[in-house]
């Protein structure tokens, strides 16, 4: 069972500069031991809720991952 209070963005650093795909999201989720992962950006609908243990992949308008954060 994943730890929902801990966010380790280091497991997702490899995604920066890559185009978002559902497979990439699942790969991050697997590397994060099933932790919550979401993608956000101008072409994605996302809530403004902060979830401390969730990894957020932030994309640009071309759906390229430009940064990662917790929440």
What does it look like?
- The chain contains one helix and three strands, in the order H-E-E-E.
- It has one helix at 22-31; strands spanning 37-40, 55-59, 65-70.
- The protein has a three-stranded mixed sheet with strand order 1-2-3, covered by helices on one side.
- Strand 2 (55-59) and strand 3 form a beta hairpin.
Tally the helices: what do you get? 1
**Main sheet characteristics:** 3 strands, mixed
Mass-distribution shape: globular
- Name the helix and strand elements from N-terminus to C-terminus, one letter apiece: HEEE
Question: Helicity level, as a percent range?
Answer: 10-25%
C-alpha end-to-end distance: 19 Å
Write the layout of secondary structure elements.
Blueprint: H1 22-31, E1 37-40, E2 55-59, E3 65-70
Short recap of the structure:
By secondary structure, the chain is an alpha+beta fold. It contains one helix and three strands, in the order H-E-E-E.
What are the main properties of this structure?
alpha+beta; single chain; three-stranded mixed β-sheet; 1 helix; globular; 71 residues; 3 strands
């Amino acid at each position: 069972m994943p730890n929902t209070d801990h966010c380790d963005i280091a497991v997702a650093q490899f995604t920066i500069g890559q185009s978002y795909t559902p497979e990439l999201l699942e790969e991050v989720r697997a590397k994060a031991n099933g932790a919550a992962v979401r993608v956000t950006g101008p072409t994605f609908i996302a809530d403004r809720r902060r979830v401390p243990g969730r990894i957020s992949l932030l994309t640009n308008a071309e759906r390229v991952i430009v940064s990662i954060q917790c929440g």
